[in-house]
Amino acid sequence: MLLKQLNYFATVAELGSFTEAAYALGISQSAVSQQIKALEEDLSVQLIIRNNRTFTLTRAGEYLAVRARQLITETEALRRETVRISHSKKRVIRLGFLLSYRGSELYEAITRYAKMNPGVEFDIASGSHEEIYEMLKSGKIDFALSDQRRAFSDEYENLVLSSPAVHIECAPQYSPGAASSFRAATLPDKPCILIAGVGQRDSEKSFYRELLGFSGSFLFADNAEEARLMAAAGQGFFPAEGEPEPVAASFLKRIPFFKDDRPVKRNFCAFWLKNNTSQVITDFSAILVDLFSKDVKSD
């Protein structure tokens, strides 16, 4: 019984489809089927009851699917810890943050922690929500700063740092006039400008359609500065959270967005895997909590 076979089986069980599992694993469907068949032969136990293109798990299969995923998670944690110990002289915080993040708290937290712990280095990456999530899930980063788009998982520490209101930033000529806020029906008749790489654009469009109730077209930027320049040029409007950009504030109107007569807010969180908790992560997250709580008090 190989760990690879357990991973294939657990993925099929979780997704409920050999086709989707093959796509997620990056291998052929026949290879997935062969490995699961080999696993059943090795155990001398039937795990799956096949019925044409559908299947159900046996009781033994249901048990193994749960334990297999736990074992895979534990094995990955073991691998990471072994690698960390082998490089124990060089402590590194692998950090990922949302491309659209514009606050000062992360910069201050890194500066403060580095002064307190001069032997620690930061390996920093940025990306869209889905890119950050995949990096954390796959173990490429240890700590993520991102917005909440899923129900919180028990596998992760889910630390809500702030709940900023969503604002629409647009050129002055597209402001809502005498109105003090935007609604879905009063959004400018212009594209919505989002920050996302090519591979994440469809998921970003779907999320913002649901968040804003926006049914128009979209434009994409690589970062917040580019998005704001596009908005200033009248190419569209930019949904933004957090503090305004001082320079952009001179050229853009920043209007609160309401839904059902309430301002739309989004949770901005710190995430890390519970089985990857360390003193380094605990101390760094405590600094972030302190900095974000000061922002709330000052408001």
Give a brief description.
It holds the Pfam family HTH_1. With 299 residues, the protein is of the alpha/beta class.
Model description:
The chain is 42% helix and 22% strand. The chain has 299 residues and is α/β, with parallel strands linked by helices. The protein has 3 domains: 75 residues, Arc Repressor Mutant, subunit A (Orthogonal Bundle); 104 residues, Periplasmic binding protein-like II (D-Maltodextrin-Binding Protein, domain 2); 97 residues, D-Maltodextrin-Binding Protein, domain 2. A 5-stranded mixed β-sheet has the order 4-3-5-14-6. Strands 10-7-11 form a 3-stranded antiparallel β-sheet, covered by helices on one side. The chain has a two-stranded antiparallel ribbon with strand order 1-2. Helix 1 crosses helix 3.
Q: How do the helices and strands line up, and which of them pair or pack?
A:
Layout: H1 3-15, H2 18-25, H3 29-43, E1 48-51, E2 54-57, H4 59-86, E3 91-98, H5 105-116, E4 120-127, H6 129-138, E5 143-147, E6 156-162, E7 167-170, E8 192-195, H7 201-212, E9 218-221, H8 224-232, E10 238-240, E11 253-256, E12 258-259, E13 262-263, E14 268-273, H9 279-298
Parallel strand pairs: 3-4, 3-5, 8-9
Antiparallel strand pairs: 1-2, 5-14, 6-14, 7-10, 7-11, 12-13
Keywords: DNA-binding, Transcription, Transcription regulation
Family: Belongs to the LysR transcriptional regulatory family.
GO molecular function, one term: DNA-binding transcription factor activity
Strand arrangement, largest sheet?
A: 4-3-5-14-6
Please write the string of helix (H) and strand (E) elements. Answer: HHHEEHEHEHEEEEHEHEEEEEH
Sheet with most strands = 5 strands, mixed
Number of strands: 14
Strand % is 15-25%
- Could you list the spans in which at least 5 consecutive residues all have pLDDT below 50? none
Number of helices: 9
